[in-house]
Structures are given as structure tokens and as C-alpha cells.
Backbone:
């Protein structure tokens, strides 16, 4: 959401503000109390190879948001999540899977997140309208950049409590009864997200290989996901 508000095409706002948020928190003092320098621990991701890795590899961050979202919204069960996590091992600082089945399951789940969910017409519409509302509120100084560090409910409350009719008019268009559909020929809104692909590393016969080398299903899923991501989503508003 915030990346669209600030027109951040790289979708990297959270990464860009990470250091300042940490610096201005209680974390540096807590770590210093026990003899640690927060900059050495938190500001160099290259040290923590399980935490962050470039796509299409697995990493803790990518696994976390995928499983958390997909479980929260009912796309996967807790049993499935546990089965996946039990299959994960670390090899030479990499997060690696042991079974082709789990690699296929996570690939399918990841694309449910970044393609089916992120690019769902209703979600595209909601993100667009809320981003427009937030942009307008920023422009009118109803909210400020620091307000995006608040909890979601607190930020929305600021918009609801303001007296600006234009902001209220836009915000009123964000509700669950909106009717939208995908229509590439007759559309009101087009959005193209960052291309996100996954190819889980697989431990096979004593070495780590991309799972797409072993699984044709994974290769095909990634081809379809790439095509959808590059094409973007065309949304037709039927009623709001």
C-alpha cells in the first residue's frame, strides 16, 4: 500500500525506512545494555543468509509473509504449514527443502499469495482507492509521513475523523460491497505489480538444485505466474 502512495516502483519503502525506525526505537539501548551494537546486528542483511535472499530462492522473510497471509485468509491449513516447516533444512546458509512435494506445495501457495491474492480485482481496487485517499490526505496535510508508522486502525481513524469532504468521498468508496471484475478490453483501472517468482532450492542426491530442474509442475507454475505478473491486472468497476 505505502509503495503506491509514494509511487515507489521498487516496492521497497519498508526496507528503506528500516534503519531509521530501528535507530529511533528502544532496540539500540536494549542491545547496548548487553554489549551489542545494533548496527552490526540489524543493518547488514548479508550476515543473515536465512533471513533475506534474492528471489527466486527461499528465505525466512518470504516464507513468513506467505504462510502467515495464506493461513490467516484460509488458503492453507495449520497442518500444511507445519508439514512444510518440518521439511525445511539449512544447507550452507540457505533455506532448502527435502521433498519435491513440499517444493511444489510452497510454489503453488506462494503464487496464490503474489498472483491470485495480490492481483485479485477486488484487492487491486481497494489498494488503489485507499492509496488515492492517503495521497490526497498527505497533500492536504491531514496526515504526515510519520503517520504511516502508526497502527492501521489509528491511521484510518485519522482519515475518518477529518472534516475534509474530498477525503471522505474517496474513503467511502472503500467497502466490501464493491462489485468489480477483470476485463482487459473495457477497464477503469490497470495495475502492474512487482514481478515475484519463486524456485525453492531442493536437496537432491547430495546437492542443492533449483526445484524447477526436478519438477515440471514448478516450471509451468512459474511460467504462468510470470505471464500474469507482466500482463498486470485490468479492473472494471461495475458498482461501488
Residues:
Amino acid at each position: 500500500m505505502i509503495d503506491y502512495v509514494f509511487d515507489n516502483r521498487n516496492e521497497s519503502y519498508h526496507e528503506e525506512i528500516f534503519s531509521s525506525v530501528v535507530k529511533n526505537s528502544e532496540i539500540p539501548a536494549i542491545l547496548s545494555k548487553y554489549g551489542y551494537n545494533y548496527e552490526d546486528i540489524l543493518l547488514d542483511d548479508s550476515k543473515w543468509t536465512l533471513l533475506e535472499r534474492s528471489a527466486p530462492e527461499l528465505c525466512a522473510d518470504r516464507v513468513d509473509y506467505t504462510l502467515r497471509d495464506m493461513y490467516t485468509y484460509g488458503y492453507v491449513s495449520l497442518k500444511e504449514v507445519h508439514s512444510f516447516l518440518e521439511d525445511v533444512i539449512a544447507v550452507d546458509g540457505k533455506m532448502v527443502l527435502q521433498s519435491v512435494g513440499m517444493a511444489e506445495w510452497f510454489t503453488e501457495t506462494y503464487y496464490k499469495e503474489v498472483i491470485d491474492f495480490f492481483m485479485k480485482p477486488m484487492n487491486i481496487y481497494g489498494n488503489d482507492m485507499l492509496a488515492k485517499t492517503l495521497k490526497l490526505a498527505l497533500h492536504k496535510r491531514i496526515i504526515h509521513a510519520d503517520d504511516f508508522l502508526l497502527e492501521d486502525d489509528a491511521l484510518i481513524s485519522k482519515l475518518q475523523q477529518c472534516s475534509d469532504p474530498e477525503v471522505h468521498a474517496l474513503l467511502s468508496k472503500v467497502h466490501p460491497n464493491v462489485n468489480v471484475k477483470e476485463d482487459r478490453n473495457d477497464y477503469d483501472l490497470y495495475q502492474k505489480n512487482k514481478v515475484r517468482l519463486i524456485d525453492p532450492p531442493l536437496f537432491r542426491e547430495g546437492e542443492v538444485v533449483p526445484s524447477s530442474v526436478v519438477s515440471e509442475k514448478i516450471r509451468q507454475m512459474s511460467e504462468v505466474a510470470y505471464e500474469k505478473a507482466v500482463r498486470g491486472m485490468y479492473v472494471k468497476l461495475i458498482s461501488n
